Amino acid sequence: MIKSLEKHIPIAAVDLVSDLLKKYPHQSKIVNQRQTKHGDFRLAKNKEYQITVNNNLNSYQFLLTLIHEIAHLVTPVSYTHLTLPT
Question: pTM of the prediction?
Fold first, then answer.
């Protein structure tokens, strides 16, 4: 996903976001537009954390949505002592 980020977020944010993605491993998907949400975070059926972000967002909307969804991942890992799936 890191390489595809360059097309979707402001270039100045790529290194910072890629550091977050490496620190908090998960599956990331860029998906077709959904009417009810810009992105989501969930535990997928394979027991891996998954973040999705809509592909139709401008670069700033995409960045804000991705950071918001990463926060959903970081919170349980940081504050409930959950472990990341390996």
Answer: 0.83
